[in-house]
Amino acid sequence: MADLKEARVPDIGGYDDVPVIEVLVSVGDTVDKDQGLVTLESDKATMEVPSPFAGVVKELKVKVGDSLSEGGVVAVIEAAGEEAPAKASDETAKPEAPSKQKSAKSDAAKPGATQPEAQSTTRTAETAAEVEPVDVAGQRDNITRGDVAKSGDAVPTPARRLDADGLMPDKVPYASPAVRLFARELGVDLARVQGSARGGRITKEDVQQFVKGAMAGGGGAVAAGGGGLDLLPWPKVDFSRFGEVEVKPLSKIKKISGANLARNWAMIPHVTQHDDADVTELEALRVALNKENERASRDGSGTKLTMLAFLMKASVTALQKFPEFNASLDAGGENLTLKKYFHIGFAADTPNGLVVPVVRDCDQKGVMEIARESSELAKKARDGKLGPAEMSGGCFSISSLGGIGGTSFTPIVNAPEVAILGVSRSAMKPVWNGKEFAPRLILPLSLSYDHRVIDGAAAARFTAYLAQLLGDMRRALL
Ligand code: CAO
């Protein structure tokens, strides 16, 4: 018969009604003993509530935003393997060592709850594990909370002393609450970070290296200069104090692209070079070709030649002339990988957020084929049907807001690429031709680049060349 047990909050040093900020498991998950179930965060500390036994999560009793105190039920777990002695309930099976034994309480707020008195909590050396909670407010709060790691054990386990970072063995991923908090602030999924400390524990430096490595194309080498980000915690504001609010979770795409954008913005020294391209003739050609195609396809279903397709083709020619733009910097910041292929990504706005599909081998394709492929990919993106392969391998990206408006903007480099072209709305402008002002269709270009790789002069040359190409695409044949 299934052995259903309640996983309860152990002694957390006297804290009461601590908000749940993270639920680390789902119903149906198989958990190891001591694997974190939820993360609690008070104004002073973050701490994980581990599962007191291995098994399968049958029911979650809390969600993010709920509050828990000692004894509060976190989950119902169908325990697996060797379990507590017969008849021993979870509570009665708790090791007796802690002198500050409390009975299970409801999750509801306790009237008259006082400040933590964790210092008075005593344990024997055999069962206690002394750790310091993370002090998010800037000071260490000298509270012991070793019980968090073991008090839910169905049967007493051999002594285990945790180290000062507050790590808890057997957790997946294996990191202290301080590191978890740090990773959350950076939007890093700890499951993807390789721990370098004893037993595979993930340190703050590992998280920093992961961010740097991901930015520079994978790998975990130490980036030149080091230093890392030393950011203040994100401000926590109860906006409802100021007026009515509604909380809306970000879409999955927004969360993923947001984490990437934040990393790229923080880690890459961006500079944006602005220039104008005279696309008067190109636009006339595009319109004429589209009319021809429309007539040829009779039903009007032929491929529409877009300005984006011309921009992609012209970018390939510029990348061929300036190879360091078709490159990626390694994680150590020492070597540039120059690519001999030309896969161009373009930012596509979808109802769920920004994605960057990639058209492969644009050097081997005509503008018409690039237009057809990019419009198919854009449709797939909008329908949420893009596969990961269709968004990988890009060398250079284009973010075109020309269909919407604007005169210039600063696109964020799509690491591990080293440059991105932003395109704003073309407009008819008076341009001096030596004799008079003539009306010309001017397309604003904004090239953001990684200044570690590309010098300002090279960026100015690249952008000017691109503008020249768009002014006369015959140059692409040279
Ligand atoms: N200047 C003036 N008009 C432009 C233009 C430009 N630079 N680029 C496109 N247009 C016009 C087109 O001519 C077309 O007009 P018609 O409907 O009259 O023919 C209209 O804008 C729509 O253009 P399009 O269908 O060719 O689409 P597009 O090539 O502009 O864009 C795509 C395709 C996928 C890039 C676009 O749908 C998109 O998602 N854009 C947003 C990208 C984005 O969000 N970037 C920001 C990323 S950073 O946050």
UniProtKB/TrEMBL annotation:
**Keywords of this entry:** Acyltransferase, Lipoyl, Transferase
Question: EC number(s) for this protein?
Answer: 2.3.1.-
Q: Where is the Peripheral subunit-binding (PSBD) domain?
A: 174-211
Q: Where is the Lipoyl-binding domain?
A: 4-78
Q: Which cofactor does it need?
A: (R)-lipoate
- Spell out the reaction equation it catalyses: N(6)-[(R)-dihydrolipoyl]-L-lysyl-[protein] + acetyl-CoA = N(6)-[(R)-S(8)-acetyldihydrolipoyl]-L-lysyl-[protein] + CoA
Query: Is the keyword Transferase in the record?
Result: yes
Q: Where is the composition biased (Basic and acidic residues)?
A: 84-108
**Do you know which InterPro entries this protein is assigned to?**
2-oxoA_DH_lipoyl-BS, 2-oxoacid_DH_actylTfrase, 2-oxoacid_DH_E2_comp, Biotin_lipoyl, CAT-like_dom_sf, E3-bd_dom_sf, PSBD, Single_hybrid_motif
Q: Where is the signal peptide?
A: none
Keyword Transferase applies: yes
Top enzyme category: transferase
Disordered: annotated segments: 82-131
Under SUPFAM superfamilies, the record lists:
CoA-dependent acyltransferases, Peripheral subunit-binding domain of 2-oxo acid dehydrogenase complex, Single hybrid motif
Q: What does this protein do?
A: The pyruvate dehydrogenase complex catalyzes the overall conversion of pyruvate to acetyl-CoA and CO(2). It contains multiple copies of three enzymatic components: pyruvate dehydrogenase (E1), dihydrolipoamide acetyltransferase (E2) and lipoamide dehydrogenase (E3).
Q: Which PANTHER family match?
A: DIHYDROLIPOAMIDE ACETYLTRANSFERASE COMPONENT OF PYRUVATE DEHYDROGENASE COMPLEX, DIHYDROLIPOYLLYSINE-RESIDUE ACETYLTRANSFERASE COMPONENT OF PYRUVATE DEHYDROGENASE COMPLEX
The name on file for this protein is Dihydrolipoamide acetyltransferase component of pyruvate dehydrogenase complex
